[in-house]
Amino acid sequence: MNHAIRIHDTGGPDVLQWDETDPGTPGPGQVLLRHTAIGLNFIDTYHRSGLYPLPELPAVLGREGVGRVEELGEGVTGLKPGDRVAYPLHPGSYSEAKLIPADLLVPVPDGVTDKQAAAMLLKGLTAHYLLRRIYPVGPDDTILIHAAAGGVGLIACQWASHLGATVIGTVGSDVKADLARANGCRHPVVYGRESFVDKVRELTGGAGLPVVYDSVGKDTFDDSLDCLAPLGTMVSFGQSSGSVPPFDPGILAKKGSLFLTRPTLVHYIARRDELLSASEELFGLVGSGAIRITIGQTYPLKDAAQAHRDLEARKTSGSTVLIP
């Protein structure tokens, strides 16, 4: 019998239960995948709490995993049992085994471990659409990345630095500042002790930035707008401190005809060719050494509740991986 972490009701980490489950057998176009490593992402806490409601309960949490193909359904081509694959967006990854459509899987290349792949795919593809598609970052850009020592932040800082940009990043402690600096963030700013708005004004001579990447939400949104140059782009892609309250869009005009987007990864990898090309670029940079994947901590899958507590308390750094 297989096991999975399920919720039967929404709430705090204590609602996570270690349940016996039966993944079933693959139907047409599906694969039975045996997980070897599972990525933890902040959106998992939103699903658990009910901030982002799930279609039905009980439900298995998680949206990112790595494993071995165990069984193929009818019509699946290009895969065979034993293949090492990963996926970035499909519900139910907090499980020992699961069914998944074959066209959502990407091959994991040699030289990338299962733990690395679980720690990097969803976060790395997020960094890809942030830096390569929403606002294509270049060598003349100075940019701000919030939560620079987090899973997405560490990858995004390295990637932006590789593209030649100067990165300002906010962090929660001196230890995280050192970590961010070691991963391409030239100017880490510690929350509560320093003003990132003042730092941006100092570094840009008051001109402001072309783009801000904000995964924190409520606590940083207003000040992030004040960091932008006229015609700058505000990218609000998360809300770890809570959702941004309603505001008058006229504020964007007053602050310089700013652009605001609230993107999500699913729309940037909706086509398989987009998923494959972005994954190949990400894996290529990791393989070349341009991006190093920092796994800050691992937990047994059955201890997912503690992993959630630590993530929400901002006690984690880098990526967190759950091991079945």
TrEMBL record:
One of its GO terms (molecular function) is zinc ion binding. Keywords: NADP, Oxidoreductase. Residues 11-322 form the Enoyl reductase (ER) domain. It comes from Candidatus Polarisedimenticola svalbardensis. The keyword NADP applies. Coiled coil: none annotated. GO terms for cellular component: cytosol. This is Quinone oxidoreductase. The keyword Ribosomal protein does not apply. PROSITE patterns: QOR_ZETA_CRYSTAL. Transmembrane segments: none annotated.
